[in-house]
Amino acid sequence: MLHRFIFFFALIFLFGSCSEPKKEKEEPIEQQETLEESLKNAKAPTATVDSVELNKSLKKIEAKYGEQWDFCNCVVKGDSINKAFLKPNLPDKEFERLSNRFDVIDEKCQAFRIQDANRTPEERAIHEKKVKKCLKAAKANKS
């Protein structure tokens, strides 16, 4: 249970660090990536990823956790669950429901845990831009 809360707070930090109000040039919303493309782009935004290794890793993850969601789905659903957890005076029943939903999201986004934690500042900035783009596209699709 402790690892879930650590992951939860890491997600809060990830999404919280991506919320600067800087205006960027509007980019068109692209078609949804395949999971492999999504992993390549999320894992190594400035370098080529070995597709054979990536596919092996993905197959192992999918064998253990089932089909994985793409990067933007993980970002949007993670952001949503984080916002829900931050609501004040959350009743125990709602906390339990959210915890169960968090477990589902965690399971479906395992593929993105293989990312290298030792990214350069430039790679982190590119990653943050991708997160913002996903959240912006989700917001535009709601409207």
What distinguishing features does this structure have?
single chain, 143 residues, mainly alpha, 65% helix
Helix proportion: 55-70%
- SSE string: HHHHHH
Structural class computed from helices and strand pairing: mainly alpha
What's the average pLDDT? 76
Count the strands?
0
User: Mind telling me the C-alpha Rg?
Assistant: 16 Å
Counted by DSSP, the helix tally is 6
Runs in which pLDDT lies below 50 for 5 or more consecutive residues are 5-11, 13-31, 44-48
Task: Annotate the secondary structure layout.
Layout: H1 2-16, H2 35-43, H3 51-65, H4 71-85, H5 92-108, H6 121-142
Helix pairs in contact: 1-4, 4-5, 4-6
Describe this structure in words.
With 143 residues, the chain is mostly helical. The chain has one domain. The chain is 65% helix and 0% strand. It contains six helices and no strands. Helix 1 (2-16) crosses helix 4 (71-85) and helix 4 (71-85) packs antiparallel against helix 5 (92-108). The protein is globular, with a radius of gyration of 16 Å.
Summarize this, please?
With about 140 residues, the chain is mostly helical.
